[in-house]
Amino acid sequence: MLHPPHQSSQVAAVPQQRVPVRDRDQDAPWHTEAVCRRDEAGLFFAPSKEPTAARLAREEAAKRVCARCPVLVECREHALLQPEPYGVWGGLTAAERRVVLARRRRRDVELKNTGRPVAAAG
Ligand code: SF4
User: Fold this and answer.
1) Predicted local confidence at residue 83, as pLDDT
2) What pLDDT score does 65 carry?
């Protein structure tokens, strides 16, 4: 089982800039390049009984970290495929991932029934 890249128990250097794909080690697991590997601020998962305003601010801060992460796409797909039920993964909250998954399911049903895709899914 893959552990969330943003567990504080995992320690790694934090890259400050997006790493070009061609410079990345293609054999290394994607999470080894996760910008959030040291989530010392606790941005990616909600503490219990978090007020809504605090949650929204925390999630936006987590998304800003994700925006500069070189493995955003891999992380997002991992979270969608599992699916990961909690936390911010790949720049999406759990609620946003549920929307993407619902769109994908609708697209797949439409494609199966008509042979034509509906609007693009995330
Ligand atoms: S996209 Fe975000 S949650 Fe995923 S590894 Fe990068 S920083 Fe962490």
Assistant:
1) 94
2) 96
Average confidence (pLDDT) over 55-61: 97
pLDDT band at 4 (very low <50, low <70, confident <90, very high): low
Between 16 and 30, name the one with better pLDDT: 30
Q: What is the 3-state secondary structure (H, E, C) of the chain?
A: CCCCCCCCCCCCCCCCCCCCHHHCCCCCCHHHHCCCCCCCCCCCCCCCCCCHHHHHHHHHHHHHHHHCCCCHHHHHHHHHHCCCCCCCECCECHHHHHHHHHHHHHHHHHHHHHCCCCCCCC
Protein residue whose Cα sits closest to atom 8 of ligand 1:
36
- Indicate whether residue 72 lines ligand 1 (CB < 6 A): yes
Does ligand 1 lie within 6 Å of residue 70's CB atom?
A: no
Q: Is 66 in the pocket of ligand 1 (CB under 6 A)?
A: yes
pTM: 0.76
Ligand 1 pocket: which of 44, 68, 69 to mutate (most atoms <8 Å of CB)? 69
